[in-house]
Amino acid sequence: MSTVAGDSDSLTPHDLRHPELTGMTREQLSDLTHTLIPRLDEHRERVRHAARGGPRRVARGSGRKPTLTPADQILVTILYLRRHSRQELLGRLFNTTAMTISRAVKGVRPLLEAHDFTVTASTARFRTPDDITAFLDPEACKIEPACSCGPVGDQSN
What is this structure's pTM? Predict the structure, then answer.
């Protein structure tokens, strides 16, 4: 996976695959990724064939290397469809641009739909990498108590 942006050194590529962010277990994400990567390659080749108007003129692998790996494209699409953040933040996290994120989503979304895979939107929203780090922090208290009362049944008042 691409290197995560430097604003939040504690956020790793592994963190971006966290079930709280993707809405699925790491195993489910891995299975989905392994299923979609060959289809993503086939789809990209069909689109390029149509754009060229014919077969390749140069060998596969020549030319500029993509910013996002196929696995990154699938992950970034899932994160985007979960509506956690805008494409600009995803671009920062994957060291690329919002336009690259947009292209990845445009390429992967039809494959998810073709496999009847529905991504459920999350209620969590993030503006910075640090917001994601705080959200994933197991030490952070996620739910604040409704009151600062003592234990139920405490009659010491």
Answer: 0.77
